[in-house]
Specification:
The protein is α+β, with helices and mostly antiparallel strands. It is built from 16 helices and 23 strands.
């Protein structure tokens, strides 16, 4: 019987002529063959049981080699009907590498089976689940890695023009502003901001730099839109906090030394308990009437006292929560909500879109008080995030190469009086000498303008005509706008010292008006034309300091405050997208 089996085996023996004959191997290793065959059978049985336990459907069969066989057939050590009889030694030699791969795959599938059989883990972020997704983490519930989603956002400018921008889902307000600055060829001085504007509700607010644009847009109604504008006062409270928080409006739970740094640290430190207090006009929900109440703002929310100025817990009533709300400015509070003053603010829950009845409307007595409440709300809500937003542009400037000049507005440069009469220039530190140098420079401008009249101008316009219209090319000139409109623009772009614009005078068609902000108050100065030796000049101080055109006047008062309360620093600008 052994001889009959060995004859065909010797013809098919894959070992080749270099290996010993099959009969010799069977003779010398009979005991090893029996042990190996039993080992292989045990492994096959264990692997089959693992397959049946896991209920896995797989094309791979343990000990699979050239001839594939069905896993459902019995695994006997005797001869098989599908393929010729193979010795145990050959079976182990031919299948051993594939067997190792099969075990590894089974181990991976077994691990996957164990993971899938674990109990469902509650999702710690259920708000991220879709309406059809269960609030648990299951295998395969997370989407595969793919490219970030993109979305089109429409942004408007102050003049009504708009631009549609394709942004990523994770783009912040600061990133979008920088993109718009690049596309509009504006000067990036870190004062641009994105405004959330709700015309049907009469509300607007500046987005914080870290806020996600797509997320904010998802809470806006169809009539709402984004505006792109300047806001110089966005982080001004970090520079001059004492101007934003009057002493009588701020109280602390611990002793404070009253310094500027200590004031900010108390707001930024989450363990401290700063509190803003004072009287505000509060509109009752669902009614048109307003009541003057004593209000206090804490980290836990906005409260009003039901008994005078008492702040006992039993007398405090919650008006609004800070966590799920944002603070807005009222655009036209008197007209739309019958507000008692023009300094209105609103705390709007994020869930509210069109319902004005759920808005918490408030009114302050003056602009400084309103700014104090709104700034405190932002600090208590965001804390260190605001300070990080404020520090990021400064850190970028510090990383710039010393050979590269930071891009910033000319109006924000530190301008000083210089004397170039010698071979080298020098800074004029004496104020009297600086004023004298400025007067001499003004006389030199007039002499150059007179020479142009004598020699003839190369411009198609007459010099006198050119001096009266050249200012219209400047960003700080806003043409024929009303006094109220100029004040509104100043307020929108930030009540900071030195913010200004020029406009045509409504009372005198030949005159102009300089609108300037100082100490959060807006003042107007009339620029009158005057004649000297047949030449037209412009002056702010009744002819004591004369300028041939408004550009020279603005340049002068950026260097010297003269009769103004402060130097001209920032100009209001409107860009077309």
């Amino acid at each position: 019987m052994d001889k009959v089996e060995q004859t065909p085996r010797s013809q098919q023996d894959p070992a080749g002529p270099g290996l010993p004959a099959q009969s010799d191997r069977l003779t010398h290793h009979q005991e090893d063959d029996v042990d190996l065959e039993a080992l292989v059978n045990d492994m096959n049985a264990s692997l089959d049981s693992l397959y049946s336990a896991c209920s896995m459907q797989s094309d791979t069969v343990p000990l699979l080699q050239n001839g594939q066989h069905d896993r459902s057939q019995p695994r006997a050590s005797g001869p098989r009907s599908v393929q010729p009889q193979v010795s145990p030694r050959q079976r182990v030699q031919r299948s051993q590498p594939v067997h190792i791969l099969a075990v590894r795959r089974l181990q991976e599938e077994d691990q996957q089976f164990r993971t899938s059989s674990l109990p469902a883990i509650p999702n710690p972020f259920p708000e991220l689940c879709g309406p059809g997704s269960p609030p648990v983490l299951t295998p395969g519930s997370l989407p595969p890695s793919q490219a970030a989603a993109k979305q089109d956002v429409k942004v408007f400018s102050e003049d009504g023009t708009s631009k549609v921008v394709e942004i990523l889902a994770d783009m912040t307000a600061r990133d979008l502003c920088q993109l718009l600055v690049y596309k509009s060829h504006c000067v990036d001085d870190n004062s641009w901001t994105l405004v959330e504007h709700h015309p049907h509700l009469g509300l607007e607010r500046c987005l914080e730099d870290h806020e996600l644009v797509v997320q904010v847009e998802s809470t806006m109604a169809g009539e709402s839109k984004f505006l792109f504008r300047k806001n110089y006062a966005k982080y001004e409270f970090f520079k001059n906090p004492m101007n934003f928080f009057p002493e009588q409006m701020v109280t602390w739970c611990q002793q404070s030394n009253g310094s500027q740094s200590q004031l900010l640290q108390n707001f930024l430190n989450s363990s401290s308990c700063p509190e803003i207090q004072g009287f505000l006009h509060v509109k009752e929900l669902g009614k048109k009437s307003w009541k003057k109440l004593y209000v206090c703002l804490r980290r836990s929310g906005l409260y009003c006292s039901t008994k005078g100025t008492s702040k006992e817990p039993r007398h405090l009533q919650l008006l609004a929560d800070l966590e799920d709300s944002n603070i807005f400015s009222l655009i036209a509070g008197r007209k739309q909500y019958s507000a008692p003053t023009d300094h209105g603010l609103c705390i709007k829950p994020n869930k509210v879109r069109n319902e004005a009845k759920e808005l918490r409307l408030l009114c302050a007595e003056d602009e400084q008080t309103r700014t104090c409440w709104m700034t405190a709300f932002r600090l208590l809500k965001y804390g260190m995030l605001l300070y990080q937003n404020y520090r990021i542009p400064q850190q970028r400037k510090a990383l710039l190469s010393p050979f590269s000049t930071p891009v910033r507005s000319v109006s924000e440069n530190s301008l000083v009086a210089m004397d170039f009469s010698g071979q080298t220039g020098r800074v004029i530190e004496n104020p009297a000498e600086a004023q004298s140098a400025a007067l001499e420079e003004g006389h030199a401008w007039r002499k150059r303008s007179t020479r142009m009249n004598i020699l003839g101008s190369q411009s198609p316009l007459h010099p006198s005509t050119l001096s009266t219209v050249i200012h219209r090319t400047q960003h700080w000139f806003h043409g024929r706008i009303s006094r109220e409109e100029s004040h509104r623009i100043i307020k929108q772009q930030g009540l900071v010292d030195g913010l200004f614009l020029l406009r045509d005078s409504q009372s005198n068609p030949k005159a102009f008006v300089l609108t300037l902000c100082h100490h959060q108050k807006i003042k107007n100065f009339q620029i009158l034309p005057c004649e000297d030796d047949g030449q037209t000049f412009f002056s702010l101080d009744d002819g004591n300091t004369k300028f041939s055109d408004l550009i020279q006047l603005v340049d002068f008062y950026q260097l010297n405050k003269g009769v103004l309360p402060c130097k001209l620093k920032h100009h209001c600008i409107r860009v077309a997208l």
